[in-house]
Amino acid sequence: MKILLLEDDFLYASSIKDYLTSLNYEVTLLADADSACELIASTFFHLYILDVKLLGTNGFEVLKYIKELKITSPIMMMTSLSDINSIKKAYELGCNEYLKKPFELDELKFRINELLSHFYPDINNLFYLKNNYSYDFKNKILKQDDKIIDLTLIELNIIEYLLLNKTRFCKADELFTLVNMQNDESYIRVYIRRIRAKTNENFILSKRGFGYKINE
């Protein structure tokens, strides 16, 4: 799973990144808000971990930016600030977890596990679909019976996102960050067509005005 870590204390951030990488998370480390916002607009992450106190700005601004993009991935704020107003502001802006520094790395692991298990309950499961398809979240493999379907990383990311939101149709603008392209629905349609060509026409359902949905 992909985590964006925004922290401007290099040594502190490196220790967190190394620890999370040892837990098999894919961690992108950034130190400034501008770089973070640029990447957030173009890349999908399962979790955002944001430091509140940053040089030049603060993590609250990045948190607001994530919400403006209508991104639904969970957000964890971490800070040495412990006053109730800071905590209140973080939750009012839409964060899902607030971690006070200093903290033990094991505490961070437990908090992340709780968030991810709540937001992605199927993430460690083998998910079964119609027409004998199955998706292995852990190994990022789509199969039909015992045959592995050859898919690109972007195609796999789209399938994963639709599976994680399997109860509803997902609008095209939710998928823009998955394809690393400009906000143009034609790019989404291209990738949907490619996935259907490698699976079948009804593998992903579409409904005008509502978006796309995996066919369970």
From TrEMBL:
SUPFAM superfamilies: CheY-like. Signal peptide: none annotated. The keyword Phosphoprotein applies. Pfam families: Response_reg, Trans_reg_C. Keywords: DNA-binding, Phosphoprotein, Transcription, Transcription regulation, Two-component regulatory system. Residues 2-116 form the Response regulatory domain. The modification 4-aspartylphosphate is found at residue 51. This is Response regulator transcription factor. It comes from Campylobacter canadensis.
